[in-house]
Specification:
Helix content is 49%, strand content 15%. The protein is of the alpha/beta class and 356 residues long. It has two domains: 92 residues, Arc Repressor Mutant, subunit A; 245 residues, Rossmann fold (3-Layer(aba) Sandwich), CATH 3.40.50.150. The strands form two sheets. The chain has a seven-stranded mixed β-sheet with strand order 5-4-3-6-7-9-8, with helices on both faces. Strands 1-2 form a two-stranded antiparallel sheet. β8 and β9 form a beta hairpin.
């Protein structure tokens, strides 16, 4: 017997529009990645109106491909188009997001993350079925490079000018000379940024991913701060050094299989009066309050990357990328910290302060 369901046509059409918009964004993401990889956005940046032939020449690409790519950019209003002259222009505000390699709002590296997630789809499906974890190093290189480049620019715009000054007394310590650990440092950009700003301090970056540590060492050398920045392969619970004035977790604690253990180890490694700086993805405490594109990105990445890595480390408490401040405070309370404070927040991050 066939059951007929009466559908609300307006609701159906509205959802079709939403789903098709998402489908278009997936297609468009490939165009953004190509535009970045081929230097098309950079060739447009500051050039004024260009024809498709002029852009193709500047970028060293075939005009017919470039012309079709330009159509995709005009369709979504990434570029401005003048039909009278058949020219295309990248507004300065869009260039800050798509073209400027040093802009704190540059987003193009982030498209490497969903590219990696698509490549990983079969691996993720198997993890769903088995419940097993997937360690960070099991993903394609595009993930590591994309995440590192995206966070480098975001941290460059906020870490030194805003986040560190929001902590009680930390900047003064750094200016005098502090001992700092960056746990889960990845490619080391956060440690390098702090070292550039505070030459009297010393910095140790720790990460379990050997290839990331190799990249971090190279980044420190390129920045000329190798004399005060070192890196080591290790987890958040096995480094032996102590006496740190500042221990940082930059978008990393929620990836760890034992966040309470990581926080407890940090408490033991702190010097008297030392501070833990915890930077985590922005999230409200209730699932019902985590709505919109930012939360959608974080939950999606968390499903195949963050939770998967935490599970690969034993998964004692898999926080996920939308843990929220209350859960994070609970982790540090269980680890023996008595001081907890929300120092700053942005639409993308929570910046939290803990002391023993």
């Amino acid at each position: 017997m066939t059951t007929t369901i009466d559908l609300n046509e307006a609701k159906l059409n509205a959802f079709i529009d939403r789903a098709f918009t998402d489908l278009a964004a997936c297609y468009g993401g490939v165009m953004v990645s190509l535009g970045d990889r081929l230097g098309l956005y950079r060739a447009l940046d500051g050039a004024g109106p260009l024809t498709s032939a002029e852009l193709a020449e500047r970028a060293g690409c075939a005009e017919r491909y470039v012309r079709e790519w330009l159509g995709s950019q005009v369709a979504v209003a990434y570029l401005e188009y003048d039909p009278a002259t058949e020219t295309y222009e990248l507004p300065a505000e869009h260039a800050a997001v798509l073209a400027d390699p040093d802009s704190p709002t540059l987003l193009t590296p982030a498209w490497n993350v969903p590219a990696s997630m698509w490549i990983d789809e079969e691996q993720a499906a198997e993890a769903f079925r088995s419940g097993e974890g997937v360690p960070w190093g099991a993903h394609p290189d595009r993930l590591f490079c994309g995440v590192a480049a995206f966070y480098r620019n975001a941290y460059r715009g906020a870490l030194v000018p805003q986040w560190l000054p929001a902590l009680d007394g930390v900047v003064e310590q750094l200016e005098r000379g502090a001992k700092v650990a960056d746990i889960g440092c990845g490619h080391g950009h956060s440690a390098v940024l702090m070292a550039e700003a505070y030459p009297n301090s010393t910095f140790l970056g720790i990460d379990p991913h050997e290839e990331s540590i190799t990249a971090a060492i190279e980044n420190a050398a390129e920045a000329g701060v190798s004399d005060r920045v070192s890196f080591s392969v290790g987890t958040a619970t096995d480094y032996a050094e102590q006496g740190f004035d500042l221990i940082c977790f930059f978008d990393a604690l929620h990836d760890m299989g034992d966040p309470v253990g990581a926080a407890r180890h940090a408490r033991l490694a702190l010097a008297e009066g030392g501070t833990v700086m915890l930077v985590e993805p922005f999230a409200a405490d209730g699932l019902e309050d985590n709505q919109g594109p930012v939360s959608r990105v974080y939950y999606s990445a968390s499903t195949t990357l963050c939770c998967a890595h935490a599970l690969s480390e034993g998964g004692h408490d898999v926080l996920g990328a939308q843990a929220g401040e209350a859960r994070l405070a609970g982790v540090f309370a269980e680890a023996g910290f008595t001081h907890w404070r929300s120092a700053e927040q942005t639409p993308f991050n929570l910046i939290l302060e803990a002391r023993a």
